[in-house]
## 1
Amino acid sequence: MRKIVKRSTRTIRYWSQPNCKTTPMLHQAAALDAAYLAAGGEYAPYAQALAFAVDVEYSSEIACYRALAADTAKFVREAGELSAALIEAGQPGASPHAHSRALVEAQDVETALGALMRRLPKFFRFGAGSHSGNTGGTQ
């Protein structure tokens, strides 16, 4: 490892300590992963650790965006159904059932819009810096 990353044995040992505040640089981690794979390893340990850290960091944010997409899809679907019901209800001689259906569809759109309006403020960022505020909230 020392030869691959061009650091002292002490530094390499320090990286393995739980209280260590430093880690290999990205190019060093890539070189260590490449050497490990070349020696018969079945996975790239540093790449896997980085992927896990990124997943933990952003999994709640991704879930929030997925929830927003689901709420948006529901709103669009309900709005389409309302449009169809309004066209039917607006025809000469439309039945009371057609008017009732349009009202029900309008209420469904109102519910779907309410869900979007409650979700969107969770995406606002307050303060300064890259980690300020709340991105997506919690689900």
## 2
Amino acid sequence: MFTPTKRNTARLALVLSAALALAGCTAADAADDAAAAPAAEAVTVTDSWVKAADSGMSAAFGGLTNGGAQDVTVVSATTEASPMLELHETVENETGELIMREIDGGFVIPAGRTLALEPGGSHIMLMDLAHPLEAGEEVTFTLTFSDDSTFEFTAPVKDYSGANENYDRS
């Protein structure tokens, strides 16, 4: 028969405490995972617009705000206005010239922050336009996030004479 001693009781209490702590952590982790909302639910788009263009290339701009507690990553974008879209960034090439190129890994939007998509900076590049984009029209985009959730927004087309960037097509 087992006779409880002060030492055995202390060991038993320690083992039970550890087991409860582990069970509590596992349950909390599972609850956090279950409560994690899709990235698309944390993001809003403000002041969006698209540069008017007759053919070739255009770009979409605006603010992507992450109202969530976790960073989110936009990995792609689609629209019927263009069969080929890329997420672009501005970088300096080896000669010191600023160029636009596809960003590796997508746009990371930090938790509680806004990522500005703007001429001369990060933007959504539309290539091989399906039709002319005229001021006053609207273009609908679908953003896809790293967790495969999606977010749709509509942006007006505006005339804009700036943003004559160079593009790295390597």
## 3
Amino acid sequence: MQLSEWATELARDRLAEPLPRRWAHVQGVAERARQAAGLFGDDGDLLVAAAVLHDVGYSPDLATTRFHPLDGARYLRSIEAPERLVNLVAHHSCAVLEAELRGLPAELAEFEDEKTPLRDALWWADMTTTPDGKQTTITDRVAEIQKRYGPEDTVSCFIRWAWPELLGAVERTEQRLADQVK
């Protein structure tokens, strides 16, 4: 069984019933990741696995710190998932900045941020997928997040602070995809 197949089963078990909208989102993110997987050779499957598991920390039985990148990564580490997968989940979509706002930077530092094109592609997939799993632009996705959480919420503050990093990852990935077509 491929890593992405295992990841999909795990995410379905943790998210589909308790959080159907979150499950729709991760399926959409995984579909976006599949569109970019060809950029990464053998690591394309890792990208899809990270995409389908990036929000597993929202699962009610895993949400211990209430910071889903950390909760998801700790859970995956506890079941001995591959280290790169664990680290990608921990650091998806510029989580390091949200960890700062939540007072959890030391906890997130347990996990390495690989800062690679593959990581960029995971961020791209997440930031270009709506909560319902549909494709969108990063601008519309960020606006939706801010509207959903409200202007003063930690998530809205984080997303404004992370904008340059998130936009950079999206633009780099879109350029890589365009270059692949040439």
